[in-house]
Amino acid sequence: MIEMRVAGIALDAVSRSPIVLLKDGSERRALPIYISQDQARSIIGALENQKPTRPLTHDLMVNLLTTWDVDLKKIIIHSLQDNTFYAVLCCAQGDQIREIDCRPSDAISLALRMDSPIWVMEEVLADASIPVDRDADEEERQAFRDFLDNVSPETLIKQARLSSDSFEAESDS
């Protein structure tokens, strides 16, 4: 799993639909998730730390969880099926841990309000993320190509043996 953060809300250029944009810690990958206008307003409200005069739906959920001493440990966006993302809330109450099925947009709204981490499974990122820093990605690919161009099979074999010997010495200690 990769920890992500909310980078903001954007609008799709063609459909004008809101998108919540999650970014990884290195700012190299972004995960766009299409959401509704109401979900976008809720996420923006949490990002801007807005306090409504009366609790809205996500604020009510936070109040319920807090009142019942339920800790939102994290949210996990765990799969993508037929262009639909799936998420769970990982909640703890005492020594009981529960995972609760949830739409990613609702999970994100709650995570922002409760200062809980947002995690995404690697498979989801592999299927749906977009590169943010193409130049850095290309530099990394080029550095790897240069390494491969300048390394001999003998050097790799020697390095593998040294690593294996070092591992065995540590295991014997």
TrEMBL record:
- Domain of life of the organism encoding this protein: Bacteria
| Pfam families recorded | BFN_dom
SUPFAM superfamilies noted in UniProt: Hypothetical protein TM0160
Q: Which InterPro entries match?
A: BFN_sf (IPR036104), Bi_nuclease_dom (IPR003729)
Q: Which residue ranges does the record assign to the BFN domain?
A: 1-132
One annotated GO molecular function:
nuclease activity
PANTHER family (UniProt xref): VON HIPPEL-LINDAU DISEASE TUMOR SUPPRESSOR, VON HIPPEL-LINDAU PROTEIN
Q: What is this protein called?
A: Sll1142 protein
